[in-house]
Amino acid sequence: MKRRNFLRNASAGLVGMGGSMAVAARLEGALRAETPSTSPQSQTERFQKPRNLAKEPFKRLVILGESTVEGGPWLPNPEHDRYADVLVRLINDIQEKPLEYHNKGISNNSISPRSPSYGQSAKPSAIERYKTDVSDLKPDLFILAYGLNDMRGGMAIKDFREDMATIIRDVKKACNPVTVLTTVYYMTGYGSWPPISKGSIALTLQYNECIRSLAAEFDCILADVWGAEGGADWLIHYDGVHANRVGNRVIAHRIFEALAQHTSGLSNWSFAQVANNDWAHMTIKARAKAGDPFMKTW
Predict the structure, then answer these.
(1) Residue 192: per-residue pLDDT
(2) Which whole number is the average pLDDT over 20-40?
(3) pTM (predicted TM-score)
(4) 3-state secondary structure of 238
């Protein structure tokens, strides 16, 4: 399905739901944004520098999530191919010192006992375990990846938002890590696994609007993994739920992209490695001579 048609069809479905006009409007805006403005001035006026949320490299990562975080038999080598591990390799490749990494994914997990999928889910839920699995570890980087199973179970978005907000608020109070929220992943088998078969593209979009609003409210980084997957069915395993090996890499790179845009500490070693080479010296002098000197702005 082409991206434009995918967005348009999703938007039409939302309009039919009556209560989702705001999400439909956002999707229509996304369609309009695909056509670049002919006015350079209007583009410049919309340009905004990202906030810098971490000026130092990360030391400890905790990721809390469901089966796609934990990994499983849908991947050839789960502890190598799951996106959390791909992300850690990306970070460790550009930091001088490697991360301490804690994967706290549990397959078939729910956000809380209020989720309709909780009854048949693996326990404990996120809200029952975040204090020991996250806060007690005191990470400086925290990734919270929930919503897929709760959406598929038909959890009320109001309840989901309250539970996510509780986790974010309490973890920030305990150790104040840079916090990344992922949107709900794309999937194809919405009706394949009853009773967790109440999900849809339309409901996923509503959940993702909720997660965006939480990121804005709590000053979190939003990693739009749904947008990265782009509705590409070939990124999803036969089971219709989990990203395949390629999809996991797409997810990891979107999170890395979001982190790199908002944390200058990831670039510290890259600058240090080349600070004294001939090219750096030559270009710094050339820029100064041109009246456009290099300035550290972060």
Answers:
(1) 97
(2) 53
(3) 0.86
(4) coil
Predicted pLDDT at 36: 53
Taking the domains of the chain in order of start, what are their residue ranges?
Answer: 1-32, 60-267
What is the pLDDT at residue 37? 54
Please tell me the predicted confidence (pLDDT) of residue 27: 52
DSSP string, 169-222: HHHHHHH--EEEEEPPPP-S-TTSSTTS----HHHHHHHHHHHHHHHHHTTPEE
3-state secondary structure of 267: helix
Class of domain 60-267: alpha beta
- The residues, ordered by sequence, that sit 6+ positions from 182 with a Cβ below 8 Å of its Cβ are 65, 143, 144, 145, 211, 223, 225, 251, 255
Q: Where are the alpha helices (DSSP H) in the chain?
A: 3-16, 21-33, 40-46, 67-70, 78-81, 83-94, 126-133, 148-153, 157-175, 201-217, 225-229, 245-262, 268-274, 278-289
Outline where 102-156 has alpha helix (H). Answer: 126-133, 148-153
- C-alpha of 264 from chain center: 18
